[in-house]
């Protein structure tokens, strides 16, 4: 177990800088916002395939970046620092601190931050779907269920629609995400 105070966290200024740069890029073109990037990095670190920052860039951004050279360098540096922070949390064994309210009920947002985070996470899963499900398909599906639900990508499935009809149940399913992320990480990495 790590001392949680020693986890290398981004400062408020760094978080704000990264959030603003990603938001501006997302408005310029259809790229990932901060929450989706965080989810994507979390999935790539959680899963069975070795982490690679190039994958984050390829997956989250359009080929024609709107960042200046300095902005791109700043985003890259801050995303690498964010990846180290996420890795430290995964290694801690504590419930994973998803950077969003664990609810899909958000009157102010078209896409609640949790949904964006879960879309990013599921994108990371789908990139390496074969490897994710190679060992225990049913167990992995159970561990992924709450994140799959929160992503909205599977909303057409009857089981998901039933949860949507019950706000308390929806919040309960979303509330299971922090523990399930750690369970997934241990599932893939505890034999190492």
Automatic annotation (TrEMBL):
Gene3D superfamilies: YgfB uncharacterised protein family UPF0149, PF03695. InterPro entries: YgfB-like, YgfB-like_sf. Pfam families: UPF0149 (PF03695). It comes from the Bacteria. NCBIfam families: ygfB_yecA. This is YecA family protein. It comes from Parathalassolituus penaei. The lineage of its organism: Bacteria, Pseudomonadati, Pseudomonadota, Gammaproteobacteria, Oceanospirillales.
């Amino acid at each position: 177990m790590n001392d949680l105070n020693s986890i290398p966290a981004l400062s408020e200024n760094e978080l704000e800088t990264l959030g603003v740069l990603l938001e501006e890029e997302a408005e310029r073109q259809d790229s990932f916002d901060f929450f989706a990037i965080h989810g994507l990095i979390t999935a790539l670190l959680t899963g069975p395939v070795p982490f690679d920052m190039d994958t984050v860039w390829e997956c989250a951004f359009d080929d024609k970046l709107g960042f200046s050279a300095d902005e791109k360098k700043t985003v890259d540096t801050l995303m690498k620092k964010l990846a180290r922070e996420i890795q430290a949390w995964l290694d801690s064994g504590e419930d994973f601190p998803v950077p969003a309210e664990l609810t899909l009920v958000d009157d102010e947002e078209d896409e609640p931050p949790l949904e964006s985070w879960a879309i990013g996470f599921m994108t990371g899963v789908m990139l390496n779907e074969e490897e994710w499900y190679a060992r225990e398909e049913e167990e992995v599906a159970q561990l992924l269920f709450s994140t799959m639900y929160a992503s909205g990508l599977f909303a057409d499935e009857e089981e998901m629609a039933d949860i949507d009809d019950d706000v308390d149940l929806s919040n309960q399913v979303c509330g299971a995400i922090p523990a399930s992320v750690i369970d997934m990480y241990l599932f893939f990495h505890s034999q190492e």
